[in-house]
Design brief:
This protein is an alpha/beta fold. It has a single domain, classed as 3-Layer(aba) Sandwich (Rossmann fold), CATH 3.40.50.2020. The chain is about 20% helix and about 30% strand. It has a six-stranded mixed β-sheet, with helices on both faces. Strands 1-9-8 form a three-stranded antiparallel β-sheet, with helices on one face. Strand 5, helix 3 and strand 6 form a beta-alpha-beta unit. The longest helix has 18 residues. The chain binds inosinic acid and magnesium ion (MG). Magnesium ion binds next to strand 5.
């Protein structure tokens, strides 16, 4: 039997499954409180946010809708250029809705910055941002993240939706990727 995940690819665990579940519960409670009386629309950025969105919506004790948007970065795949292409747009209009954009991780913040501008043009009642993870010291200061799960040191990570070459999204924790 081979070991999964392979120790040569997945190293130190930075956030355990229990820590994630506890923090997601806190974020859900905070969102429910901030938007009580409304039906927030969680917009997950595919694919990395799917697991986070699924847990976050169950942590909101009240009505909530979800939708998804998919983007691809132009240019160098390892460093976001800030020029993103929408590969799958929202299913329904967001005018008048209380929207929360949900990301897996903010690195430079350029993807989120682009999406905030794209959605702000569509006249939502309010627009907030949420990310499970942010990476310390890398962010564009213009990008404000209203709800943050954890701040991480500068290492590439996998698990809980985040991938390396489409692998390791199914790990229940966040760990440093040590593969090639
Ligand atoms: P940004 O536009 O530079 O903020 O890039 C954010 C996007 O890059 C995220 O939505 C992820 O898809 C991807 N990304 C950045 N860092 C990591 C990581 O450590 N693991 C997996 N994906 C990452
Ligand atoms: Mg992403």
């Amino acid at each position: 039997m081979s070991v999964y995940p392979p120790p040569e690819d997945v190293g130190k665990v930075l956030v355990t499954a229990d820590e994630i579940q506890r923090r997601v519960g806190e974020l859900g409670a905070e969102i429910a409180r901030d938007l009580s009386g409304c039906t927030p629309l969680l917009v997950g950025v595919l694919k990395g946010s799917v697991i986070f969105v699924a847990d976050l919506m169950r942590a909101i004790a009240g009505p909530v809708d979800i939708d998804f948007i998919a983007v691809s970065s132009y240019g160098d795949a390892t460093a976001s250029s800030g020029v993103v292409k929408i590969v799958k747009d929202l299913d329904s209009p967001i005018a008048g809705r209380h929207v929360i954009l949900v990301e897996d991780i903010i690195d430079s913040g350029l993807t989120m910055k682009y999406l905030v501008e794209h959605m702000a043009n569509q006249e939502p009642a309010s627009l907030r941002t949420c990310s499970l993870l942010t990476r310390r010291g890398r962010q564009d200061p213009d990008v404000q993240i209203d709800y943050v799960g954890f701040e991480l040191p500068p290492a590439f990570v996998v698990g809980y939706g985040l991938d390396a070459g489409q692998q390791y999204r199914n790990l229940p924790f966040i760990a440093i990727y040590t593969g090639q």
